[in-house]
Write a structure and sequence with these properties.
globular, about 280 residues, 7 helices, 2 domains, alpha+beta, Alpha-Beta Plaits, Ribosomal Protein S5, domain 2, four-stranded antiparallel sheet
Length: about 280
């Protein structure tokens, strides 16, 4: 038996740090891909030592393992979640999307040491081409949302890399009233985005970055300067730090007819599993 999991990265338009607290998020899968191939063998394991160790810890069967990835590591695009989704798919085969998400989260919690929520695995497994999804973490409902053609996104690399288990991810030092305000306003921005034009959405991205930086403190002065530089670049309508914070990618919405530095990201298909006997 051979299983191949092809898993995308994740971009999140709005709704950062809402998944632990019953809020809303608006993510999509990007064109960046990670591919894990697991070929069954009678005994033992072969492959990269770290991947083999994680595979065995997660309950994987004897296999030859090959991993290829175009997802930047530590860049706020869910490289670790993509790996954990790939492991869950290859080890367990086809299950419901939510079962795969929960298993991927378990692997990331127990074996990578990251107390992550469900935003990343849900985005990775539930997205579709040309669509984002609205996730309501109060009941884990997922609603497809076709992204308007005039919404054009780019990512700009800050050049700063981080591993969330080595940062203050979880943010237990943030006061409860501050958390409530952040989640309420981020969720409001998600609801409003559904009917936004690009200019309104740009303002929402700027407001989101302010909350991430000044309220819950997942940015740094260095990154804030980079975000401000992007926000004031001709053709950029709004921008914010994306992902868990402390480094990685800046997400920008840009005008359609103006060339802006960065990499264009395209809403793409969710994770797939191929099985061969």
């Amino acid at each position: 038996m051979r299983r191949i999991a092809i898993v995308p990265a994740r971009a999140n338009i709005l709704g950062e740090y809402t998944d632990h607290r019953g809020g809303l998020s608006l993510p999509f899968a990007t064109q960046h891909r990670l591919t894990l191939t697991a070929s069954e063998r009678e005994h033992g394991f072969t492959g990269n030592g770290d991947i083999v160790s994680l595979w065995k810890a997660a309950g994987g069967w004897p296999a030859d393992l090959e991993l290829e990835s175009k997802i930047p590591i530590g860049a706020g695009m869910s490289s670790s979640a993509a790996l954990c989704v790939a492991l869950a798919l290859c080890i367990n085969g086809k299950r419901s999307h939510m079962e795969t998400c929960l298993e991927a989260q378990r692997i990331e919690h127990e074996f990578l040491g990251t107390p992550c929520g469900l935003l990343d695995p849900i985005a990775i497994t539930h997205s579709s081409e040309k669509h984002a999804i609205i996730i309501d973490f109060s009941d884990l409902s997922v609603t497809p949302f076709r992204i308007p053609e005039e919404w054009k996104f780019k990512i700009i690399d800050t050049g700063v890399r981080r591993h969330l288990k080595d940062t203050s991810y979880g943010l237990s030092n943030v006061a409860e009233d501050v958390w409530k305000k952040h989640v309420a306003e981020e969720s409001k921005r998600v609801r409003e985005a559904i009917s936004c034009d690009p200019y309104q959405l740009g303002k929402s991205l700027n407001q989101s970055h302010f909350s991430l930086s000044c309220r819950i403190g997942v940015s740094t002065p260095e990154i804030d300067q980079l975000v401000e530089k992007v926000q004031t670049t001709k053709g950029v309508l709004g921008a914010r730090l994306m992902g868990g914070g402390f480094g990685g990618m800046i997400l920008a919405i840009v005008e359609n007819n103006i060339e802006v530095p960065g990499t264009t990201i395209v809403p793409s298909e969710s994770a797939i599993l191929q099985e061969f006997v």
